[in-house]
Amino acid sequence: MADKELAPKDIARKARAALKAKADPVRARGAERYFKDTVKCYGVPAPEVHVLVSELYGLVKGDWTVAEAIALCDLLFADPELEAKSVGALILIRFQKSYPPAFFAKVKSWLAADRLANWASVDVLCPEAMGAFLERYPAHVEKIKAWAFHPNRWVKRASLVSFIKLARKPAFLAAIYEISASVFPVEDDLVQKANGWLLREAGKADPARLERFLLEHGPAIPRTTLRYAIERFPPARRKALLLETK
Q1: Contacts of 115 (CB under 8 A, 6+ apart)
Q2: How far is CA 71 from CA 64, 129, 189, in A?
Q3: Which of 54, 88, 102, 162 has its CA 20 to 30 A from that of 145?
Q4: Predicted TM-score of the model (pTM)
Q5: How many helices, marked H, and strands, marked E, lie in the chain?
Q6: 34 CB contacts (<8 Å, ≥6 apart)?
Q7: Any idea which fold 1-98 has?
Q8: Would residue 218 be called left, alpha or beta, if left means φ above 0 and alpha means ψ between -120 and 50 degrees?
């Protein structure tokens, strides 16, 4: 890394300085109230975070490998602020074509250690990064099924949202429905909502299959999950499914 002009610690320092300069305490307090989890924010709007990511990535594009991007995440994911975590995740996503097999365990370690301890951070990283990883290494689909049984809520949520971008691909639907059913007993609302979101996306690929799945499992499905899952059905069918799955 010595021959590279900017090391991960340099980009982390630039990211923090830029976020502090853009900070809006009023917006930050409003964002923090929005989350049920205890989170910290700079109060920087998402479009400005994306502009910053593009600027920082431009400084290292062509010099960094995925190893440096992972090292940057090790630094920024330790920060309490949502925007710092987003910067790390969004830069890492730029390297998705070169994730190594070891990336799977690395992401799990961040989640299990509560480095991404809110739904927004999990949802920034996992649909894009883990979705790309699973598409590149489909053998890991079997391995991620075990995440649904992990005691950490963020690992559980990641087992679901990692498939969001893959839900329209028929090759992944069997695994999606298996994982979905496996978390029905989980009472955590952030897992239930993620599950409903995933089912809704899977239903875009095959609405009839989603409907059969919902009718098959009926009362076992948490109502929160069900309501999210059926959002795209016509109103009359939504009402019927709510009754038929009781």
Answers
A1: 77, 78, 85
A2: 11, 15, 32
A3: 88
A4: 0.94
A5: 15, 0
A6: none
A7: Leucine-rich Repeat Variant (1.25.10)
A8: left
Output the six-digit token pair for 236.
């009359």
**Domain edges within the chain:** 1-98, 124-246
CA distances from 46 to 24, 25, 53, 54, 193 (A): 13, 15, 10, 13, 22
The dihedral built from the CA positions of residue 32, 38, 41 and 46, taken in this order, carries a sign that is negative
Coil/strand/helix, residue 40: strand
CATH assignment of 124-246, given 3.20.20.210, 3.30.1330.10, 3.20.20.150, 1.25.10.90? 1.25.10.90
For the chain, report the end-to-end CA distance as a whole number of angstroms.
59
Mean pLDDT lowest for which of 30-34, 85-89, 116-120, 203-207?
Answer: 30-34
Looking at residue 32, its pLDDT comes to 84
User: Which residue bears the tokens 């790309």?
Assistant: 132
Q: Residue 94: pLDDT above 90?
A: yes
